[in-house]
Specification:
Blueprint (H helix, E strand, L loop, with lengths): L1 H7 L23 H12 L8 H20 L4 H10 L6 H16 L1
Length: about 110
């Protein structure tokens, strides 16, 4: 879309000419039941088992961000840059969301 915008000065959605649909007739090598099972399985969200240890570590990380912001007056971008240097990337937007969550808790 970016290239189309540069070339034609238009950011309209590009037209897709090839359209594929599944109809009732599947190839003989694929059974309908197996196909439906795999299809329903692929749309299920993976359950992440959150252990108390993971929850504790995430909470400690979040509180460290809050303390860095409050006591050291470090910006979200600075925290993000330092995490990238440590090869643990986290965007400034995500850090902002974390800080906002703890501001709401502290306001109550």
């Amino acid at each position: 879309m970016y290239i189309l915008g540069q070339k034609y000065l238009s950011y309209n959605k590009p037209k897709i000419y090839k359209k594929h649909r599944f109809y009732e007739n599947l190839p003989s090598a694929i059974s309908k039941e197996a196909y439906q099972d795999k299809k329903s399985e692929s749309f299920k969200e993976a359950e992440v088992e959150e252990t108390p240890e993971i929850t504790r570590l995430i909470t400690q990380r979040d509180i460290a961000f809050v303390l860095a912001k409050q006591e050291r007056k470090i910006t979200d971008r600075e925290i993000s840059r330092r995490l990238e240097e440590a090869k643990v990337p986290l965007t400034a937007a995500n850090i902002g969301r974390i800080l906002q969550k703890y501001r709401k808790i502290n306001d109550k």
